[in-house]
Amino acid sequence: MALKGVSFTAPTAHVVGVLGENGAGKSTLVKILAGAIRRDAGRIAVGDVPLQAGSPREALRAGVALVPQELAYLPSLSVAENILLGRLPRRNGVVSRRGMMRKARHFADRVGLRVSLDRPMSHLSLADAQLVEIAKGIARNARVLLLDEPTAALSQQDSDRLFATVAALAGENVTVLCISHRLDEVLEHTDSCVVLRDGRVALDSPTSEVTKRDLVGSMLGSRKTTTFQRARSVRTERAVIELQGTSHTDTNGLRDASFHVRGGEIVGLFSVRGGGQEAALETVTGLRPHQRGRLLVDGQDVGAIRNVREARKRGIVGVPPDRKRGGLILSGSVVHNAALPQLGKLARTGIMRPSRERAVLEGIVTDFALKFRSPVQPIGHLSGGNQQKVLVGSRIAVGHRLIVLHEPTRGVDVGARREIHQRLSVLASSGSAVLFASTDVEEAVELADRLYILRDGTVIGELAGDEKTPARALSLASGDPL
Questions:
Q1: Residues sharing a CB contact under 8 Å with residue 430, sequence separation 6 or more, in sequence order
Q2: Which of 1, 109, 287, 437 counts the highest number of beta carbons within 10 A?
Q3: Which residues of the chain are modeled with pLDDT < 70?
Q4: Cα(216)–Cα(231) distance, rounded to whole angstroms?
Q5: Coil, helix or strand for 471?
Q6: Burial letters for 98-133: b for 16+ Cβ neighbours within 10 Å, e otherwise?
């Protein structure tokens, strides 16, 4: 998302919450501030010193440090080495261990980090790893700290601990910009808030002067959600898949979650990041077996689905959230990627017949208006929307009874999004069951017949009919109802 004339001021020693839907421009803003991408126009200043368009090194030199959502530490190195990365104290050209430990402890204490400095980063909890990254920024004399979704995968206790650190840093004249989807934590822990919508500032206000309703309204604007008017087969009475009080014993899993999907309907899961929708889909598709509760397929308790192969045997196929990492071979041809989920089925005696691959691709072309230059061109050369069509279409072509999609239209334009939604509608009309999860509230409301809202791993509400609105979904997912 390109930014369009974004202007706001973050006062010294303030905590500023930055909110907006997916695609609103938050990531672009952070990347510009951190020097990862160049701005085309405008002025940025840290204090009275202009920040030149440059690189992350230039941003760090100006006192701007980023703690990304996907932490960038070196797992094999110790906590102390990561805190002082690139700034290790030396004597006669040799790293001074005593000096390193003394300096690292100073910065660890400033952020409330209570772990052994000798401990490898790979052994730390996510909450402690985030504190290490914050300590690293402070060690580089950061005057402005950028936190991208810092609590997305943290428990409430760890989130409270993180914001205690943030408040302490603000007391030391550090300005903190915190990107978050969680409205309640923004209202509780920030001094001011900025809402981005479609690349522009939709709200810039002291936090004490806004309500949750104000934030939701600014995020959504005047846009209305359109719904499909589609013919449907009669939905089956018995659920194709059902979770009853399902839980994981590890962190960031489900907590006594229950929901079901019948044939002939599209069911959505919506939560803010870290709310449990990913764990729910992984449970159904065999990527994360549950430890407690029941999982029923066609009314039969199947225990836990242990792997993807078992899920497919039970008629469940999943579409991964990241096509570049877990869904497509970008260097492979369009036709090969189209047939990828069915290679074992389509090949005879270990040999793939090109005609079989082409038949699968032709079906996707028909269903999705797929555009490409040649069936043998690398799929990485296609637009993101066409790549996503191949990803979704190739899984639908497998022909299972339940298709499970995580972020079904991530990174695609409006046209491709509409075509994917329409194809899923047709699939449901034929009697198949569709389960999806999206962090895009408008997509969740538009596509789902019934929408389950999750928070902290628990299903806390179900929306359908006139109650299924973006404002209602956001308010339930982020905290207390409006």
A1: 233
A2: 437
A3: 1, 22-23, 53, 152-153, 155, 222-234, 273-274, 344, 346-353, 411, 413-415, 480-482
A4: 32
A5: helix
A6: eebbebbeebbebbebebebeeebeebeebbbbbbb
Strand partners, 411: none
- Alpha helix locations (H) across 329-435? 334-339, 343-346, 354-368, 384-396, 414-429
441 phi, psi to nearest 5 deg: -65, -35
Strand 458-464 to 45-46 pairing = unpaired
H/E stretch holding 239? strand 239-247
Please state whether beta strands 144-148 and 175-179 pair in parallel, antiparallel, or not at all (unpaired).
parallel
Question: Would you mind telling me the total number of residues written for the chain in this entry?
Answer: 482
The β-bridge partners of 192 are: 16, 206
Q: What are phi and psi of 18, to 5 degrees?
A: -115, 120
Please calculate the CA angle 114-117-123 and round it to the nearest 5 degrees.
85
**End-to-end Cα distance, the chain:** 29
Query: How, if at all, do strands 450-455 and 458-464 pair?
Result: antiparallel
Report the alpha-carbon distance of residue 119 to residue 325 in Å, rounded.
Answer: 30
Nearest to 144 by CA among 42, 15, 5: 15
Burial class (CB in 10 A: 0-12, 13-18, 19+), 160: middle
Nearest CA-CA partner of 451 in 317, 265, 233, 311: 265
Which are the contacts of 199, defined by CB distance < 8 A and separation ≥ 6?
1, 2, 3, 4, 6, 24, 25, 28
420-443: pLDDT as tens digits? 999 999 999 989 999 999 888 888
